[in-house]
Structures are given as structure tokens and as C-alpha cells.
Amino acid sequence: MSVTTPEPTRSTGQGSLGSTLNGRRLPRWAPLASAAVALVLAVGVTQVGSIVGLAWPVLWAIFFLVVQTGWSFSTEGRRHAVDRLATTLIYGCVILAVAPLLSVLFSVVSRGAATVLTDFPSFLTETMRNVSPRKPGGGVAQAIVGTLEQVTIAALVAMPLSILAAVYLVEYGRGRLAKTVSFFIDVMTGVPSIVAGLFIYTFWVLTAGFERSGFAASLALVILMIPVVVRTTEEMLKIVPNDLREAAYALGIPKWKTILRIVIPTALSGIITGVMLAVARVSGETAPLLLTVVLSQSMNWNPFAGPQAALPTFVWDQVSSGTDASINRAWGGALVLIILVVIFYTAARLLARLFAPQAH
Amino acid sequence: MRTASPPDDVAPVSRESRTVGVRAGDRAFKGFAAGAGITVLVIMGAIGAFLVWKSIPSLQANSANFFTSTDWFPEDKPPTFGIAALLFGTAITASIAMLLAVPVGIGIALFIAFYAPRPVAAALAFVTDLLAAVPSIIFGLWGLAVLMPNMEGTARWLDEYLGWIPLFQNDLNIYTKSLFIAGVVLAIMVLPTVSAVSREVFVQVPREHIEGALALGATRWEMVRMAVFPFARPGMISAAMLGLGRALGETIAVALILSAAFTINWHITEPGGNSFAANIALKWNEAGPIGLSALIASGLVLFVITLAVNMVARWIVARRAEFSGAN
Question: What DSSP element (H or E) covers B77?
């Protein structure tokens, strides 16, 4: 390279700094040009005869890597060639991650909408009572009611417990116990949802002797919600300015009243956001519901007794039936479930934005 | 000193009478809060205790080796069942998921932290969060109906050209409902976990290290390799372990995709295989008392494994947090 450079004074000892500042670089259009060359090569090779049966997009990607790295290596040197290779691979990772998400959303929306819209609005208002798996028709009303009841109960049980635990960690937590609690809340996020279902079954059904019900499902969801709500509440309590607490103490207000009347109200919107995010997460849980509640095909308003449906278990049941009509219903149920999750998710974001505490 | 105390003598009387009420309220409230914290510990302990207690009946009746048997006949007399096939399937699917998701997840995190322009980074962070919010039943449905038909070609290609590796060999020439495809779906599901946690660590890398590296003439990749990776390595390891925890416990997607079989089959593109969580979901409604107890026993093993993985991951993070505090 130094032979072709016009400056004769440049010594090789200048090394990397010299080559970065005034060494030869590829033009800005180099990636585009490499892509074009690689495309021509890929299409050409696939036309002439397939190289070990690879599809042309894969070949294109491989040729692009080879062409660009080779070109860069010969002009810019090894370090820049490696840099370009790494950059390309990192961009490739992004495509690999975004592609499945788009595919999931596209297939759920297109296939789900086909079902929901052909039976609109009966798909949303009718139940599966007396509907044969082989025949189209029926709906998800019983599943929507079940999911809403179960996640509401779960949120009502999980909220006070989690908020108190977070208050303990932020306002009181010093020493061994607080560290242990904090550690196990982190560990709890990793408890598989099916294990939460197993635990509630052994505890609520086998030991306490209650029947499987929507409420038992709620209890399993509580276990999955607690760590999420505790962590978000903790974050929210931490950003409540210390000035507020100190002002309250200066007025002679005891600590517990300061927490209940000043700290929690200030952080409340953020806490509610955290709860909504947790609700959005658990409303799609299938595994614990399979163990703790019997699936119902008809409407059951009572979460404390009898079988009850939910959207995830409805989808599971329809897929398991395996007929064309039931698979279509599964896609319809999946779309309704995703819309529900998006509603919870957006509600959480809106609440956060509307009532964001004035942190400074 | 003592002579100065008389005026103080007056104050303590009134102060004490006030603080007694205040202290009682404070003590009660602190008790409540601490009680909530302890409840969390109790729940975690109870999960382990109840699972152990309820799995004892089947473990005592079991006539096969619980850890090495590949049979699952808990309703027989005497019951014979073991977790070997479940352990194998869980390990294989989770390994495939890790092999695919860890590099890609770290790549996305690098892109968001160091490569993307700010609005693109924010949008992509939102998209990966969205990926985390998609329920697993939907991934299962998508994997079964959309991904599986499209992966058949890939599995066949692996068999045709890399079939000399026993792992990719396929004697049945059926390429669906396999551990391989279940692993790919799992990879997509744990991707957001891996990328979110590594992103958090990448953002904490001190600006001085990054700018110092760039000022010395490092290319962007050299900066990543020399300034970011050494700092973030523990965080990346724990990101991978947290993803592994998710992959091990995932139920529904695996249950929908695999055609459950109690075998140890190293040909991972052939149909069959099973996992702890999927087996519990599939066998639950047809199980009798001993069957339920056997499933609970297998769930206990899953709980212990995920607990260990998560505790190691959290321990690594906690150690790093102390280290960075000293920095």
C-alpha cells in the first residue's frame, strides 16, 4: 500500500494513525456497489447451477460479505476490513430480529382478521357453546370475560403486596434481609410460568382442597406479576425527590404517614403503569391456566367456581382440535389476544406520559 | 455536662410522649412492609416445599431410575418413569436457542447502543420490547403454521449437505415437528431478553473508555472489542443465562411444535422429542394421582434447574454492580 501512496515521506512506522487520517478509504457508495455486485453474482450463480442448494438471498448475503471485505482489505487494510465485516454482521442481526416480529404480526393480523371480520361481530359476542369443532362459527366472548376477570383479580391481589414490598426495599431496606428479598425478587422473575401453575395446583387444589377455578388461575398469575410490579414500583419510588420526604419530616410528619400520603401518591401513576405492564405480560400466559382452571366452552361469569375460559387457553384448545375451522378460530382468538395486550400496553404508556412525576 | 442536662430533662418528657405514638405507627407500618418482603421469600420457599412434598408419593412408588429412565408410564403398576428424555429435549432446544439468540441478541444491543442513529435506536428498542410482549401461545401458533413449513427446506439442506454430522442426519426424510424447529422458535422468544439485558450493560460503559479508544484511532469494532466487551463481559454472560432461564421454562410454543416422544434421538431435525414444561402441559389432563405427582416431580427438577441458572446470573450481575460502583 505504501508503494502506491503518493507521499514518499510517509513511513510505515506511522502505522494505524496515519492510515486512519489520510490512508485510502473506500468511497461512501462502496456498500451499495458491493451489494449490487453480490446480487448479480448470486442471481448468476443460481441461474447457472445451484451451489449446494442455497437460496439466492443467502448467497447474496455471503457474496456481499466476501466482496466488500475483500475490496476493503485490498484498499484499506486489515483493520478496516474487519470493522466493515463486523458492522455488516451487526446490521444483519437487526434484520434477523425484526423479520420474525414482522412475520408474526403480519400472519396474526391477516389470518386473524379473516376470521374476526367474516363473523363480525358474532365472533366477539358469542361463545363456543354447542359449536362443533368442525364447523365454523362460535366466538370468544367467554374467553374475553375469563381473561379480563382473571387478570383483574390477579392485579388486585398482587398490587398491595408488591407495593408494600417495594416500599420496604426503598424506604426501610437496609441489611441482610433487604438484600435477600431483593435477590429473590430477581430470581422470581425467572420462575417458569408452568412452575407457578404447578405450585398453585399443589397448594390451592391438592392441599387446601379447593376446586380448579378462574381464581386459582389468578393466584398463579399473581406469582408471575409480583416481581414485575415490585421492580417498577421500586424504580418509581426511587425517583420521588428526597426534598419531599425531608420537607415532610421537617413538618413533624411521621415516616409512615409521609410514605402513605406523600411518597406513594407522587409515584402512583408510575406504579399503575408498572401494574398495567405486568397485566399485559400475564394476560397472554397459557401454561399456568392449563393446570389451574378447566377450560369452559360456554360463558361463566363466576371466577370462583366451575370451569372458565381464557383467550390463551381458547387458542390452545382450538389449535389442539386441529380442524380447518378450529385453526381459523385459533387465529381469530390470537388476534383478539394481541389487541388486548396492545390495549394494556398502550394504556400503561399513556398513563406514564399523562401523569409523569416531575423528577429533577 | 451534667449541669447542662436539666433543660433537657423537660424536653424528653414531651418528646417521648409524642414519639411513642409516632414510633408505634412507624413500627407497625415498617412491620407491614417487611412482612410483604418476607412474603416474597415465603412464596419462593413454599414453591420448593410444596413441589417436593407432592412429588414424594410418585418417587417412592417409581420402579425405574428417575434420572436415567426414558420411560413415562406413571400409571402402570408399578409405575415406571424417568426424566432422561425430558432433560435431553430441554437441553437440546435450549442449546439451539442459545446458539442462535446470544450472538444475534448481542448484535442488536451493540447496534442500539453504538451503531444506530438515536431515533432508529429508540424505535428498535421499542420493537424488541414489543417482541417480548407477544404471548408465547402466539409464537407457538406462528411457529407451527408459518415458520415450520418455511424451515423444512433449511432442515433438508442441513441433512443433504451436513448430514455426515450425526446431529443433522435425518433417516426419516420428515423434517417437521422437530427439536430443531422448537429451538429456533425458542431463540426468537429469548432474543428480547438477551438484547435488553446486554443493552443495559452496554449503556453503562464509561464514555471515557469509548472516546479514549476512538481518539487513539481505533475503528468502531476495535472500540467495541477493546473498550466495551471487557467492561460488559459479566453483563453479557448474565444476559445469556437469563435468556437460558426463559428458554428452559418455555412451555406452550414447544408443546405445540414438537410431536411428543419419550426418546433420546440425536437426529435433531427428525420429528419427536419432549421437554419438561411441554410434557407437563400435554400430560396434565389425562394424568391420575400418581401421574400428577410424577409430573410435579419433573416440574421440581425444572424449578431447581431454572433457579440455579437465574441465581448464578443474578450473582454475576450483583458482583459486577459492586465492581462498577468502585470504578
Answer: none
CB atoms within 10 A of CB A251: 8
Task: Name the pLDDT band for B292 (thresholds 50, 70, 90).
Answer: very high
Query: In whole angstroms, what is the distance from residue B40 CA to residue B23 CA?
Result: 26
| E strands, chain A, in order | none
Instruction: Return the pLDDT at B320.
Output: 63
CATH, domain range B72-326: 1.10.3720.10
Check B219 against A79: CB less than 8 A apart.
Answer: yes
The Cα A92–Cα A159 span in angstroms is: 41
DSSP letter, residue B168: G
Does the beta-carbon distance from A192 to B141 stay under 8 Å? no
Q: CB–CB of B166/B267 below 8 Å? A: yes
- The shortest CB-CB distance from B37 to any of A21, A181, A198 is to A181
**Average pLDDT rounded to a whole number, residues B273-289:** 91
Residues B59, A12: Cα–Cα separation, whole Å? 73
Min CA distance, A304 vs chain B (Å)? Answer: 20
Cα–Cα distance for residue pair B29/A257, rounded to 1 Å: 9
Q: Which residue has the cell 431483593?
A: A182
CA dist., res. B105 & res. B16, Å (int): 59
Three-state DSSP string of chain A? CCCCCCCCCCCHHHHHHHHHHHCCCCCCCHHHHHHHHHHHHHHHHHHHCCCCCCCHHHHHHHHHHHHHHHHHHHHHCHHHHHHHHHHHHHHHHHHHHHHHHHHHHHHHHHHHHHHHHHCCCHHHHCCCCCCCCCCCCCCCHHHHHHHHHHHHHHHHHHHHHHHHHHHHHHHHCCHHHHHHHHHHHHHHCCCCHHHHHHHHHHHHHHHCCCCCCHHHHHHHHHHHHHHHHHHHHHHHHHCCCHHHHHHHHHCCCCHHHHHHHHHHHHHHHHHHHHHHHHHHHHCCCCHHHHHHCCCCCCCCCCCCCCCCCCHHHHHHHHHHHCCHHHHHHHHHHHHHHHHHHHHHHHHHHHHHHHCCCCCC
Look up residue A293 and give its three cell numbers.
382452571
How many Cβ atoms are within 10 Å of B221's Cβ, its own excluded? 20
Select the more confidently predicted residue: A28 or A333: A333
- How many CB atoms within 10 Å of residue B314? 21
Domains of chain A by start residue, with CATH: 25-98 (no CATH), 141-354 (1.10.3720.10)
Q: How far is B262 from B172, CA to CA, in rounded Å? A: 17
B39 near A CB under 8 A: yes
On whether any CB of chain A is under 8 Å from the CB of B16, the answer is no
Other CB atoms within 10 A of residue A280 CB:
22
Report the C-alpha gap between B141 and A309 in whole angstroms.
Answer: 18
Q: How far apart are CA B284 and CA B260, in angstroms?
A: 14
Q: Is the ipTM beyond the 0.85 threshold? A: yes
Collapse the DSSP code of A233 into the 3-class scheme (helix H, G, I; strand E, B; otherwise coil) and give the result. Answer: helix
The DSSP output letter for B146 is I
What pLDDT sits at residue B159?
87
Rounded Cα–Cα distance for residues B131 and A281 (Å)? 11
